[in-house]
Amino acid sequence: MNVTLKIIKYEFSNILRSKWLIIYTLFFLAVSYSLFTFGGDSGKALVSLMNVIVIIIPLISIIFGTMYLYNSREFVETILCQPISRKALFIGVYLGTVIPLSLSFAAGVLIPFFLSGNYDEINTFLLLMVTGIFLTIIFTAAAFVIGLKNDDKVKGLGFAIFVWLLLAIVYDGIVLFVIYIFQDYPVENAVLALSILNPVDLGRILFLLNFDISALMGYTGALFQKFFSGNAGILVSSASLCIWSALLILWGLKSFDGKDF
Fold first, then answer.
1. What is the pLDDT of residues 71-113, one digit of tens each?
2. Which of 54, 105, 144, 261 is least surrounded by Cβ atoms within 10 Å, i.e. has the fewest?
3. Could you state, in order of their start, the residue ranges of all structural domains in the chain?
4. Sign of CA pseudo-dihedral 17, 14, 248, 66
């Protein structure tokens, strides 16, 4: 445990010096401040911010995580020469990457929200924070898996961008195509399963279940609302995000344990 904490502290301080993390924080500060100050209704501002989060957080987390792992290769090889377990090292490096990214996002949205002085939607805002942190955890874990499975940096980065494009942009189009092809058949259960297979969709659904805005939820969100209304929908989507997080972290740990550095 002491070794893991030391690695987390080292990685944390190392990432905090990164100019990209500063830019990441300033981006969310600027966007959040603009929406909360000039967006009028706080509910609409939160929905607009959510639309930014489900695109930007997965993109930055998977690219930053992949590149950071490649750049930390020499550090990892050096530490592995010491009598330190691979599990402790992986957890230290992973948490040392996830925590600064999560804190950066949290600071970028928390400060403008409290400056706005409008706390009527604080529960919804906290759910927004939870969704953003979940996406950070999941896509950073995915980045570590990609980096460990691909020794070539260019190939790994290209695959990371492909995964982001697939889940954040293309996936909804694939779901709509499936619905169109099988429109004469009952596809509700299949589409519901497809939504659970996409953490970006789950994050958006988890947040939008608090609003009566089915037009923004899309077909998968509307199905979630139909099958799991109210707290049941929040519970199912939250549990699914937890499973996504656990599976990817375990996959990364297994890949790291069997990696020949």
1. 988 888 888 888 888 899 999 999 999 999 999 999 999 999 9
2. 261
3. 2-257
4. positive
